[in-house]
């Protein structure tokens, strides 16, 4: 039977224009499969642009792979930024929200990740499969497999980790499953993906190095300024040349115990990438680490609709504004509780005392980093009088320990990849000493919710020049559903006024 000639649609023609322009704004939102090569690429790929009649366009990598295309070895689809929260209707939003949740669950090594995501979204496995397949053109299982394969591809190309280590970090469990998946989906072996790439891993250096893509523009200076002003010496810091460094504790792959280590990251703005160096000890959990870093620096944000919404603010625009997120959800939540009704500097002082008294030593290559933030179990079991002697008032001590107990026993999950927004907010508000301001800031920084709004924040009232929460809320109505970004922009404007 003769094959019908391909007739490009209007949408295909628009996508082709983005491809011809190598428009980085579409990176991670658009992939092109080339029928003459059987390969799919990012729109920023530097190979010769194929003819439109040879192109097939997809909204995500899994759809391209389901259509039989293999990832390009040059533009590296695994480095593309991902997707974040959706503002579509309820049905579309559920399917869209499931995608980043599956990405987050892909590398955790837990059984039945699709069932776990369905439970978080409050639907059955079957309903999620139906909605997801209708919205994305692939099943959740196929999407999960693509996420794992692309992570494995990046680790094989960029590090010297053994195949078994790569398989564990990517979520396959063992090397045999990884071999089988690569052969079935890409018709390649691990050694094929290694060929021609000089990795850097424990055997080749003192750090694991990866490159993570983001969509431009990105206000790196503002993001680093925010993190630097709140950095805890010993735990976190921003260097004069713009490197973000910190210690971190991640759960071990088997769920027993934890792995302590460090990371250092810098922005390569010209290439629209973040260069991430990490402790070799993190090799088994690199998938989780990448997810934490992407959330902490808001690398998956789509700046275009955000910048349009924030144009309504009475401040000078800052293209590519990002949400300073969280590498450690518990640590950030504790610091938000400590910051209730006091200045950023005073809260930082209390956090430093907490780290000095209850933190644990961590070996790093940086003289300024040597401590890990206290664990939930340690703070939950701490003597209340010991906490009080650090200068923390009694009400705040009670709130901290209630928060620590809830995280330690698993009744509260403070992780953008594993916590349901409504459930987490309700659980937070049920704790003593935690009100709407605290819960909304935790939603903003820990859960990455783009429309969080701590209306009573004194800094916001001063920035907008109003005296009531209702007036501040009215001032940002046009920014919905991106009010979290409006919070950060208002704080930036207030800091600028204070500095001048």
Description:
It is a single chain. With 500 residues, the protein is of the alpha+beta class. Helices cover 46% and strands 10% of the residues. It contains 22 helices and 11 strands. It has helices at residues 10-20, 61-66, 90-106, 113-121, 125-136, 140-158, 163-170, 175-185, 190-194, 220-230, 286-296, 303-310, 329-338, 344-358, 376-381, 384-388, 394-408, 421-429, 436-445, 458-464, 469-475, 483-499; strands at 31-34, 39-41, 55-58, 70-71, 208-213, 236-238, 244-251, 258-268, 273-278, 360-361, 371-372. It has a 5-stranded antiparallel beta sheet with strand order 5-9-8-7-6. A 4-stranded mixed beta sheet has the order 3-1-2-4. A two-stranded antiparallel ribbon has the order 10-11. Strand 6 (236-238) and strand 7 form a beta hairpin. The longest helix has 19 residues, at 140-158. The radius of gyration is 23 Å and the shape is globular. The N and C termini lie far apart (74 Å). 47% of the residues are buried.
Output the strand order for the largest sheet. 5-9-8-7-6
**Cα shape:** globular
How far from one another are the termini? 74 Å
- Could you give a short account of the major beta sheet? 5 strands, antiparallel
Structural class: alpha+beta
Contiguous helical run count:
22
Q: Beta-sheet strand percentage?
A: 5-15%
Helix content: 40-55%
Rg, Å, rounded: 23 Å
Flag low-confidence runs.
none
Name the average pLDDT: 91
User: How many strand elements?
Assistant: 11
Topology:
Blueprint: H1 10-20, E1 31-34, E2 39-41, E3 55-58, H2 61-66, E4 70-71, H3 90-106, H4 113-121, H5 125-136, H6 140-158, H7 163-170, H8 175-185, H9 190-194, E5 208-213, H10 220-230, E6 236-238, E7 244-251, E8 258-268, E9 273-278, H11 286-296, H12 303-310, H13 329-338, H14 344-358, E10 360-361, E11 371-372, H15 376-381, H16 384-388, H17 394-408, H18 421-429, H19 436-445, H20 458-464, H21 469-475, H22 483-499
Parallel strand pairs: 2-4
Antiparallel strand pairs: 1-2, 1-3, 5-9, 6-7, 7-8, 8-9, 10-11
Helix pairs in contact: 3-4, 3-5, 3-6, 6-7, 7-8, 13-14, 13-17, 13-19, 18-19, 20-22
């Amino acid at each position: 039977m003769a094959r019908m000639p391909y007739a490009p649609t209007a949408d295909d023609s628009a996508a082709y224009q983005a491809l011809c322009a190598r428009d980085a704004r579409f990176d991670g939102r658009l992939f092109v499969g080339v029928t003459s090569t059987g390969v799919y690429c990012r729109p920023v790929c530097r190979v010769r642009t194929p003819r439109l009649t040879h192109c097939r366009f997809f909204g995500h990598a899994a759809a391209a792979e389901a259509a039989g295309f293999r990832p390009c070895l040059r533009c590296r689809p695994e480095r593309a930024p991902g997707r974040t929260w959706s503002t579509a209707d309820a049905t579309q939003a559920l399917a869209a929200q499931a995608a980043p949740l599956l990405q987050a669950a892909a590398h955790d090594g837990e059984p039945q990740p699709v069932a776990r995501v369905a439970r978080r979204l409050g639907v059955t496995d079957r309903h999620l499969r139906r909605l997801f397949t209708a919205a994305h053109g692939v099943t959740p299982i196929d999407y999960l497999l693509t996420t794992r394969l692309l992570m494995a591809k990046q680790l094989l190309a960029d590090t010297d980790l053994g195949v078994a280590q790569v398989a564990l970090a990517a979520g396959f469990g063992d090397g045999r499953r990884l071999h089988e998946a690569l052969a079935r989906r890409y018709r390649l072996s691990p050694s094929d993906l290694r060929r021609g790439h000089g990795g850097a891993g424990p055997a080749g250096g003192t750090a694991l190095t990866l490159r993570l893509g983001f969509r431009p523009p990105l206000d790196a200076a503002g993001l680093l300024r925010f993190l630097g002003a709140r950095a805890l010496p010993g735990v976190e810091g921003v260097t004069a040349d713009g490197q973000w460094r910190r210690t971190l504790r991640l759960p071990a792959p088997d769920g027993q115990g934890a792995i302590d280590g460090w990371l250092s990251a810098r922005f390569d703005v010209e290439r629209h990438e973040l260069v991430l160096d990490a402790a070799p000890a993190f090799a088994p959990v690199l998938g989780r680490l990448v997810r934490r870093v992407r959330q902490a620096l808001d690398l998956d944000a789509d700046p275009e609709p955000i910048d349009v919404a924030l144009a309504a603010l009475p401040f000078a625009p800052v293209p590519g504004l990002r949400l300073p997120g969280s590498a450690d959800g518990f640590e950030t939540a504790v610091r938000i509780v400590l910051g209730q009704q006091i200045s950023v500097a005073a809260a930082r002082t209390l956090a430093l005392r907490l780290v000095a008294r209850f933190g644990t030593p961590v070996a790093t290559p940086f003289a300024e980093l040597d401590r890990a933030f206290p664990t939930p179990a340690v703070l939950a079991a701490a003597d209340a009088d010991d906490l009080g002697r650090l200068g923390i008032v009694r009400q705040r001590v009670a709130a901290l320990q209630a928060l620590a107990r809830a995280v330690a026993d698993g009744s509260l999950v403070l992780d953008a990849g594993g916590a349901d927004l409504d459930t987490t907010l309700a659980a937070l508000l049920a704790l003593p000493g935690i009100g709407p301001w605290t819960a909304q800031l935790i939603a903003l920084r820990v859960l990455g919710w783009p429309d969080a709004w701590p209306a009573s924040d004194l800094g916001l009232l001063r920035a907008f020049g109003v005296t009531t929460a209702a007036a501040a809320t009215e001032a940002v109505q046009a920014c919905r559903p991106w009010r979290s970004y409006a919070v950060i922009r208002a704080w930036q404007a207030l800091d600028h006024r204070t500095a001048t």
